[in-house]
Predict the 3D structure of the following.
Amino acid sequence: MGFIEVKTEGALARITIQREKSLNALNPELLKELEETWKTLEASGCRLALLTGSGKAFVAGADIGNMAEFSKDQALDFARAGHRVMNVIARSSVISLAAINGFALGGGLELALACHLRVAAHSARLGLPEVGLGIIPGFGGTQRLSRLIGPGGALRVILSGEMFTAAQALSMGIVEEVVEDAELERRSEEIARAILDHRSHLAQRSALTLVREGLDLPLDQALEREAVAFSELFNSDHPRTGMTAFLGKRKPEFS
Ligand code: CO8
C-alpha cells in the first residue's frame, strides 16, 4: 500500500492516486492497490467514490517503463490485471465519479472510462496515445470508448493518438461536464451530494446494473429486465418511503 489516499465521510469516499513523480502512471502495485481499495469500499458500505489524481495528472497512463521489455505472456498478464481492476470499478455497486484534474492518457483515460461518471477540469488533457507507442489501448479503451461515444469517435481518438482538451472531450461525450480548474473539487462533491442525499441506494444500484448490462442485450430482453428490476424494488420499503414522502411534501429518508 502507499499510492492511494482514501478519505471517507459517511457514504462518500475521496480516492486520490498519489504517484506524482511518474504523473500517477499505473504500475502493477498501483493497480493491485486500486482493486483492493474498491473491494474495501464495497465492504464498508460506501456508496460513492470520487476518484482523482494528485498533482498535474489524473493518471498519465500505464507505466511505460514497466512495459517496454514485456514478453507476449507478460503483456497478456498485465492487460488482464488491468481489465480485472477496471471491471471491479465498472461493475461495482459503489458509484464512481472520475474528477479529471490534468492528464488522463492511455490507461488513465481507460480508468476514467471504467468509472460511471466523469467531470473534467478545464485544463485537463485527455487521449489514448498508445498507437504512438506501438501498442493499443489495452485496459478496456477499445471497447468502453466505442460503447460510450460510438465507433467513429472512438476510432478517431484511438487511431490519431492525439491529446484533446476537456471541452473537446465534452463535445465528444467522453465527459459529462467541464468546470473551471478551481471548481473541480467543489463541483464534484456537489454532484456526489446530489446523488447521495435523499436518494434510494437500492434504486440507484438497480439502475447502475440495468444501464451497464442492458447495453450488451437486445432491447426487448433489456426492457424485460427493467420491468423485473422495477418490480423487485417493491420487495423493499424504498418505493413506499419515497412516494409517501413526496405525497407528504417531505424529503425521503431511505433505510
Ligand atoms: N509511464 C511512466 N512514466 C511516465 C508516464 C507513463 N505513462 N507519463 C509520465 N511519466 C513520467 C515521465 O517519464 C517523467 O519522469 P522523469 O521526471 O523521471 O523524467 C515524469 O513522469 C514527468 O513527466 P514529463 O516530464 O514528461 O512531464 P511533461 O509535463 O513534460 O509531459 C506528458 C506530460 C505529456 C503527460 C508526458 O509525460 C507523456 O507524454 N507521458 C506519457 C503519456 C502516455 O503515452 N500514456 C500512455 C501510456 S501507454 C498506456 O497507458 C497503455 C495502457 C494499456 C496497457 C495495456 C497492458 C498490456
Q: What stands out?
A: The chain has two domains: 4-196, 201-247. The CA atoms of residues 72 and 78 lie 10 Å apart.
